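fyi for ur records
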Amino acid sequence: MPFRLLISLGLLCALLPLHHGAPGPDGSAPDRAHYRERVKAMFYHAYDSYLENAFPFDELRPLTCDGHDTWGSFSLTLIDALDTLLILGNVSEFQRVVEVLQDNVDFDIDVNASVFETNIRVVGGLLSAHLLSKKAGVEVEAGWPCSGPLLRMAEEAARKLLPAFQTPTGMPYGTVNLLHGVNPGETPVTCTAGIGTFIVEFATLSSLTGDPVFEDVARVALMRLWESRSDIGLVGNHIDVLTGKWVAQDAGIGAGVDSYFEYLVKGAILLQDKKLMAMFLEYNKAIRNYTRFDDWYLWVQMYKGTVSMPVFQSLEAYWPGLQSLIGDIDNAMRTFLNYYTVWKQFGGLPEFYNIPQGYTVEKREGYPLRPELIESAMYLYRATGDPTLLELGRDAVESIEKISKVECGFATIKDLRDHKLDNRMESFFLAETVKYLYLLFDPTNFIHNNGSTFDTVITPYGECILGAGGYIFNTEAHPIDPAALHCCQRLKEEQWEVEDLMREFYSLKRNRSKFQKKTMSSGPWEPPTRPGTLLSPENHDQARERKPAKQKVPLLSCPSQPFTSKLALLGQVFLDSS
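which gave:
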């Protein structure tokens, strides 16, 4: 079993070869140890300010040194920052926060919550923290990782989202009331990312709890979007989940669409699912054909491919990192360098940048301390060791500290032209921006494990491997250990039999070289038929035929804020600022 599982974990490492970046010939590469400590200090300035001034509210208001609820009254910043604490090495505070969350967070409340945001921030944050609990020194209960208080909290939160999926198309509403379900009169319009950004969290939850409903709804949602693409292979920005008709027909890689593409790739790696990867690669062809111009990506009409908006959105800066995950390093670096020129121009990425004019778009001049360009730098540095990527990290630290740092944390930059600030510190600053900066400067962090070390855990369902690396970050930068999906098979037909396990293991050991060759030739995303079960090459096809059929359950919903959107700028849907 360990050999099979380590092959699975090796997929991400194979895609991202680990190079320890050295200074360039002129010795000018930023000092990683220095900036690692600077990033850590940034984290604690923001984190301590939240605890002192804003807890138990969702987020800190750094200009008035108080707090406010933004996404549902979950003490959201605490959930979002929890796994960052461990990545920075603070096990004692991790342990304390686990107790605080158990005592204070309640999902049985009369609150309208974003389905998308609750999933990526709350469900994703709790799942990641649950899977990292033992590493953080938490005294885990018997049966972990197949049980535990944080897992139960994640499951409770996810179940609160399921009513949103009850639509004729299976694609969900964007907002759900945690106590009463979907409100009568709720808008049926949701964005593409809000429909296609569940497979990472929900498949993990199904694997750990044994309840297939979560993964099932996520897969149905992905398929409905795939079936709704245009004849030229593109998807729009917002869709009516009752009728399946596109409301906003702008196609691109940025806001409203972004994490749909991200989750096809990450879901493929996490689940070894060739179909998800094939879907992304088809989209990638259409994106290159119709939206890419000189290594920039524009917005086009989804049916005709004509340009509708020649703008770069800051949310698009995740794309080079995603390209690195499929091995497209050269294209990723060229696009990254385009985006980096914008950062150098303003000291941050404006929400919208007009490419032909080389300047910001009116009312979209702000920078809410987003992580996407830093995220791409982290992935690309792991793949190339290019010191230019460390320079982006250095520039980010210097800019954020100079422009955004205030007495009570770090404030959103309202306008990059004059450095006016806004009274908000989004929880993703601690969940993503600081985390990716730290990992960029910390090449030996446990997150970067290349499989050379791992832990063996005995569960009620057999032995499994954890902590071997290959972590999959959800779109809120919460790392999921892919090995965990092999630990907890509760469905009777998927439970490990000791005799089968030993027989498969020794058969696999005898045929190790043959198996490895066959695995590589058949493609890295071959989906396991029985997760966690060892299959020799001979019985792989037979086992696949026994795989239970997926249940058809409704779908997903759209991200972020309650839907207060308006159509503007050539039909694109933008969210009102709050």
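DSSP finds 19 helices and 25 strands in the chain. thats all i got for now
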